[in-house]
Amino acid sequence: MNSKTKGFWLATCLGLLMSSASAVTGPTQEQLNNADAATDSWLMYNKGYKAQRYSSLDQINADNVAQMKRTCTFETGDDGGFQVTPQMYNGVLFFTQANRTFAVDARTCKALWVHKYKMDTSSVLMTNRGVAIADGVIYRGTPNAHLIALDAGTGKQLWDTKVADSTLGYFLSAAPIYYNGKILIGEAGADWGVKAHMYAFDAKTGKKAWTFDLIPTGSQKGAETWQRAASTATGGGSTWSSYTLDADTGEVYISVGNPAPDFAAQYRPGDNLYTNTVTVLNADTGEYSHHYQQIPNDDKDYDTSAAPVLYEVDGVKRMAVATKAGWLFSYDEAAQKQIFKQAMIKVTNQEKPTTREGLDICPNYSAGSQWSGPSYDPVSKTLYVNSVDWCGNVKLGEVRLIKGQLFFGGAMQLDPANKAIGKTAAFDAATGKPKWSYELPSIRIVGGVTSTAGNLVLAGSMDGTFYALDSRTGKVVFKDNVDKAPVGGGVSTYEIGGKQYMAIAAGNTSKGTAGVKNVGSRIAIYTLP
């Protein structure tokens, strides 16, 4: 079998299930609790509950990474959104596209199984970012707003729960997480005018356990921040990427996106909770704990969309989150107060209201940090973040809610794509002070960032380049182009049989990739010779 395995066609056209797709019984709740520190797996979209995207593996390091080679490639046979980080358990990589879920050997790229989901309704956006894995079952959302469960060993569908009506603009793009017998996931679709929710479902049956309204109404806490909350012309509150959880407190941290209409804030006076926040709930009950709002009454579509990261520095429990507005925030969780707000890129005119004449702003809504949050290195106490420095012009326009159509209340003109600058940057996790910045003019960096004990920072860019930086200096120590496939996903790293591997998702050709020729999606696996 050659390095560019046509795994999808092998599994789907011939209907083969490879013999290595044996019964899977884990991971257990204990393994999930310890996933952030594990070296033999990458269990969640952001590795573990704390979302630190850090590995203590150092077999591949800044001194020898230049010798690293690609060992195999798995081609999915499709294009479109591909924004996953390959998740590994028990020697198998699990990842998703819009309607398909894949299991491949984490060393050889050999196809184990492929599940194709048949939608019964249409969807406004065909993007999916990954799965939850627990007790031998894979859980994922679908573009038509269903939650499904699959047998991790065979790909057989176990149950299917309708979460919301996709014809209204609802969809599930986030990678869910599993906790204490429940699957936690929320809806997206704010840009289509939906009123989003966060949910928990019973992992065995798919039955709904609790709901939290991210656009509160009536007597619910936060409803007073929508002065026209009863209007059908207000909504929003997407959860786009994944979630973060504190296993010590049992609280889930939810990054909540923009209000709607996106640009016409005069239709929704007030702070518009819980949009543009990190909102914290009890994961068992859905009960509200606290929240941090990054932008009240947002009128520029500056979602808080990437999952936050939990970390400790100088004995203080912190939460940090990066936003589309180009800011990196850090909060003291004990005192529930903001510690720093650090600009990652150029930020201009964000406090000025959107007008019908147009307002030049930096960044535009396709820049900043999109669906990928920080990585935290506990040794150097550093946060590493990917972002895009790219400006534009926003204008108010007609405000009209039409079922299944975008509900912007205006438009945004992006600056030419060649003016975008992709960045991977390092910040002191205690103070927010910048340490170094690696920049790629005219090339965006939107995928996930991963750091390791080998003094490596790993990421990819939209020209298809997989690169490693020395985490101490930002110097490039490795580069390889993944078949010119735009990297919108992330890098996972894991150990099998005493050998360290890295897997990267490339081929993202969805929104925000203007001027990029579609290239089929693929997973590439690397290791030392």
TrEMBL record:
Residues 1-23 form the signal peptide. Its EC number is 1.1.2.8. It comes from the Bacteria. One of its GO terms (molecular function) is alcohol dehydrogenase (cytochrome c) activity. Coiled coil: none annotated. It holds the Pfam family PQQ_2. InterPro entries: PQQ_b-propeller_rpt, PQQ_rpt_dom, Quinoprotein_ADH-like_sf. Its cofactor is pyrroloquinoline quinone. Keywords: Oxidoreductase, Signal. Residues 42-348, 425-484 form the Pyrrolo-quinoline quinone repeat domain. Gene3D superfamilies: Quinoprotein alcohol dehydrogenase-like superfamily. Belongs to the bacterial PQQ dehydrogenase family. PANTHER family: QUINOPROTEIN ALCOHOL DEHYDROGENASE (CYTOCHROME C), QUINOPROTEIN ETHANOL DEHYDROGENASE. This is Alcohol dehydrogenase (Cytochrome c). It comes from Deinococcus humi.
